[in-house]
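Morning - iron/sulfur cluster inputs below, output right after.
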Amino acid sequence: VISKTRFINYSRCRRYCALDEIHKKKLLATISYEDLLEEEAEAKKNELYMSMYDEEDEDLIFKANEQLEAMMPYYRKIEILAGSVISRKFGKDVIFSLNTYDQKKFEAFYEDYRFYCFLDGFLKNGDSFSVFETKATTSKKFLNLGPNIKKVKESIFTTKIDDPQVLVLKEHYQPDLLNDQKYFTFRQKLFDKFNDCGQYVFDLAYQRFVIEHSENKEKFAFKKAKYYLVVLNSEYIHDGRVDEEGEPIYQDDIVSFIDLTSITEEYQSLIVNDFQVVEENLNIMDASRCSVSIACQRKKIKECPFLSICFDKLPKENSIFAYMGSHHGFGAEKLSALELYNQGYYQATDIPHEWLARRNNIIQRDCIDNNIAFFHHQKIKAGIEAIRYPIYHLDFETFPCPLPRFKGEKCYSQSLFQFSLHVEHAPGNCDKEKDHYSFLANNHEDCREKLMNQLCDFIKDDKGSVLVYNQAFEKTRLKEMAELYPDLRDKILSIRERIFDLLDIVKGNAKLFQALGFTEDIAKEINFYHNRLDGSFSIKKVLPIFSDLSYKELVVANGMDAVATYARFPKIEKAEFDKLYQALVEYCKQDTWAMVEILQKLKNIIDYSKDFV
Ligand code: SF4
């Protein structure tokens, strides 16, 4: 008995089915129909999660159930919204629910197995029907799918001429595009189930296959069927209107429909292969080792639950995956890290030196081989000298709400609710408590103007640098706030212009260091490396190398905790609220104090050539 989620998992590799079977036996359990429903519901929740967090940030992938739970009210709001928009647009007879138990179900026998699909939305209209698959993501992924033409993204999707709420493939209006190599290349990504857009097309193609092979198929005229993805409109901007209860009022165009009818039809000849692979995997039931691949989804939200079994030879630190830029490959054959693992290379030091062609990888290897740290003293010195005092060490916390809450926000806007600021008046002159300023919302009301006013008061008009770690995030937030609050615009833009990225000093930045007079080759090199970085320059990895501070002891220990804690604010009792409020203040304070400590340590190393331990 196989649902969509199981189908996707069973098609990962030959080993998965057998490991899953062993796992079930260990639990002395057989899979019931209820279990399937539960699994489908979990998969939906995970999708919401996937949209809220950046998978590249390794701190965010280890999720806890309570964090997911904190997000559920937002997920339910999407459900209600999508359901009502679909009924208004397509007809009230639509069967719609994101709750698997209440969904329209199809089942198909294929070979010896029974395949199920549960549809978020289903509308039968005479002898035709429409299928709606709701995803807690936005149309942005589809609008970004396409080549850059003269530095402008040309999506392979466009709005339907007579219905701007629907996105269709451009070939719908310009069939000649199918002969355009660039267009075709991006279109092919729709058939890649590991691609950002392709993963959704694969879901819908699976459902189409089950529907078209279902027992009651004779009732449906497949030629007239329509298949839609229902997503949030990434272009929609909330005008700030609220109802009597203070809840935001949205227009129907907050929801976009992506018409994937023709693509899912084309997909059918491909997906039959996946059905055969799944059938074969289930028949063989072979738990012996098989090759790892992209299907393992290592360090992604959809990571295979058996990863620790198949990657058991991988050391905890400094594995072959620790090399930066490993997607460029290694050796003459440009082998990927996954291919290397399959060939028996597990540790970073297993790779022959001559296979390392990139200078940064050679630096990494040298640090690992010799257990030393690498510093490019002149670059770090030049970087530090470019910073002006007083330094304002700044960090924001935001809530990526799926539905906009306040005026000017879009779906998944990073809505500001906290900042932390440490002011370093002169080199080394910064007190962790006395020179700390912060703002943290204590409820879910719009606090952005108050927050920006306080920030503008604390950051004086004195030309001091505003130091952040990984500037793109803070710069984008400040730009948004400058547009939203014209009275504060000049002040906010001045703060934005004074931003200096500490990551540029720690890791490097080719453009910055070329501007500071270094040759292109030197500018491209990393400034610092330590074998405990394990290939990552996230502040959580960098800080323990320079300081005794650690995030492990904190109640709120990462960005994801911070978001989930803030999400729970309106629902918790006073005593717990006070505790969590303080925990959030401490977490954010640590982020900026970490910058103070890292900068100080770097200065010591440069100024006094202190040995680094
Ligand atoms: S970790 Fe990879 S190889 Fe192992 S079962 Fe999962 S998908 Fe298959």
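Note: The longest strand covers residues 128-138.

O.
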